[in-house]
Amino acid sequence: MPAPTTASASGTVPDADQSWSIREIADEFGVTHRTVRHYEDMGLISPERRGTTRVYRRRDRTRLALILRGKRLGFPLEQIRTIIDLYDRPRGKASQLEYVLAQIDERRADLEQRRRDLEDALAELGEFERRCRADLDHLA
């Protein structure tokens, strides 16, 4: 998963000192507050606390974008955690990149198999539909 763009909807990149509430970050990414809290409970994001208020920084936005991208691509949260942890480490370790590439290859193979399965199911459905229509024509 390549690093997400952290620009806002207006196209501006937020300041490092900028912060967001749980409502603002949930609304921006189109998720529920509960989802954001779930990712926090799992340790995937870790906002600052000011009393009972969560304060999300640019790092949290970036991590949330990575989480949601990983989910869209079908990665389980534990794999997303590993990938995010690699993202946070200094760059330059071949083993980190090799791990991510292996995960991508595995996910791609899974998606390609699913596509083949769907194509087979659609072909079977089409054949069944053709037979039903032929039977209906004979009854008419």
UniProtKB/TrEMBL annotation:
Keyword hit for Protease: no
Annotated TM spans: none
One Pfam family here: MerR
Coiled coil: 94-131
UniProt KW Transmembrane keyword: no
Tree of life domain: Bacteria
One MF term in the entry's GO annotations: DNA binding
The HTH merR-type domain, residue ranges: 19-86
Keywords: Coiled coil, DNA-binding, Transcription, Transcription regulation
Descriptive protein name: MerR family DNA-binding transcriptional regulator
Organism listed in the record: Pedococcus sp. KACC 23699
Lineage of origin: Bacteria, Bacillati, Actinomycetota, Actinomycetes, Micrococcales
